[in-house]
Amino acid sequence: MTLNRNFFWGGSASSFQTEGNWKGDGKGISVIDRREVKEDKSDWNVGVDFYHRYQEDIRLLRDMGCNFYRIQLSWSRIFPDGDGEVNPKGLDFYDNVIDCLVENGIEPMICLIHFDIPQSLVDRFNGFQSRYVVDCFDHYARTVMKRYGNRVRHWLTFNEHNLNHIGFRFTGSKNLCEASLQKELYQVNHNTLIAHCKAVKSLREIVPNGKMSGMMTYKLFYPLNSDPQNVFFARRLNDFFNNFHMHVFAKGEYPEYMMRLLKSRDWMPRFEPEDNELLKYTCDILAFSYYNSQVVSYRNFGEFSTLQSCIDATTVRNPFCDSTQWGWEIDPIGLRYILNDLQRLFDKPLFILENGIGLSEEVVDGHIKDEKRIEYHKKHIQEMKNAILDDGVDCIGYLTWAPIDMLSSGGEMEKRYGFVYVDRGEKELRSLDRIKKRSFDYIRKVFTSNGEIL
Ligand code: BG6
């Protein structure tokens, strides 16, 4: 048996990690531009200069055999203040990127928010704490659907949506007080879910053949051992962290276990009268990123004031898995486990939107020998194939993070993910030249053989 011949192979990227030109051509300031830059890390001003080199990069993606690529639109490039006047140069830029992808035989997917929103929305309205910002997002989504919907079928609202409720403040909320932090995070999370559902509603109207994905980062929690306390604890974390958002995306309502948790801890967000109806706008595809699994050991959940502090305090090392230099445990079978679990729970097409390994690399005599990356992808793709071909899972594509080196989410150039090396350091921009790594040929064979050659 072989994979469906329409299977998607390719990669994903965010705008802030790649584009640069952070305040050129009318772009407004985003929350990322205001993020504190650590002394030994990079700022976001240049990225890997995708803004000026997108044609070269897209040709590399084509040569790599990609038939699919997920880009993110920078909201602040299109609406510099988040609301108000549109920036025509911002719209033009993404027109050019989309056209270039299509001309090179690569199907584009648009992600609307990847950890950043216009700073002005935070300064004036406290970000997604405010329902006005939900309306601004709705206007942004509708504007770009009208502009690009004739060429873009696949859409995604929030990258890794479930990070909203664990303490990531990328959606721009400020002044969250520690005492009521988790309650406020659930309000932000709820407002982003409503923003997402409004985008699904708009897509149905503006791009009738469009496909909307709901996405989360899947942190697979394993119990430390067969102690039933540990087993049930891991199960609860998987529900709270992973399945909650998927349930909303697939079934159009909050799951009962979540309602009970939120009520019992006084974390319940405020629902506006129309919200239950809006939540019913479900997704076409359930999408996720997967990098690693983690082992947790039981503690009383009630001891913790946030879900993130609970995860941090209960995670222990898995002696059965190797880990990366950054301590991410490598677990290809975990991918097969997740695909099976999601299929049985929600019965919707699944899409792997990010999978990859961060490695510190150097060019030696003009070559980058990234055998570990080859091994990582080989094993993960094999487990994905097992899930599809042996277990009957409906998975429509595999996107790598990220085909061409870019800054890591923490601003490190040292942590590289690509099949193409970019010549820059943390502070030193160097030539920004692109050099194919050894894994480039490997992944090309995988992609162009539709996963037959591993
Ligand atoms: C995902 C994000 O969580 O992981 C990306 O969507 C990020 O933005 C990727 O780059 C890898 O994480 P990191 O921190 O190693 O860059």
Question: How would you briefly describe this protein structure?
Answer:
The chain is an alpha/beta fold and 454 residues long. The protein is built from 14 helices and 13 strands.
Describe it for me?
Helix content is 40%, strand content 13%. It is of the alpha/beta class and 454 residues long. Helix 13 (371-390) links the parallel strand 10 (350-354) and strand 11. Helix 2 (50-63) packs parallel to helix 4 (88-103), helix 6 (131-148) packs parallel to helix 7 and helix 13 packs parallel to helix 14. The longest helix has 26 residues, at 181-206. Bound molecules: 6-O-phosphono-beta-D-glucopyranose. 6-O-phosphono-beta-D-glucopyranose (BG6) binds at residues 14, 159-160, 217, 289, 354, 358, 401, 408-410, 415.
Question: How are the elements arranged and paired?
Answer:
Elements: E1 8-12, H1 15-18, H2 50-63, E2 68-72, H3 75-78, H4 88-103, E3 107-113, H5 119-125, H6 131-148, E4 154-158, H7 181-206, E5 211-217, E6 220-223, H8 228-251, H9 256-264, H10 275-278, E7 285-289, E8 293-296, H11 307-314, E9 315-316, H12 332-346, E10 350-354, H13 371-390, E11 395-400, E12 420-422, E13 434-436, H14 438-448
Parallel strand pairs: 1-2, 1-11, 2-3, 3-4, 4-5, 5-7, 6-8, 7-10, 10-11
Antiparallel strand pairs: 8-9, 12-13
Helix pairs in contact: 2-4, 6-7, 12-13, 13-14
Bound molecules: 6-O-phosphono-beta-D-glucopyranose.
Fill in the keyword field for this structure.
14 helices; binds 6-O-phosphono-beta-D-glucopyranose; three-stranded mixed beta sheet; eight-stranded parallel beta barrel; globular; alpha/beta; 454 residues
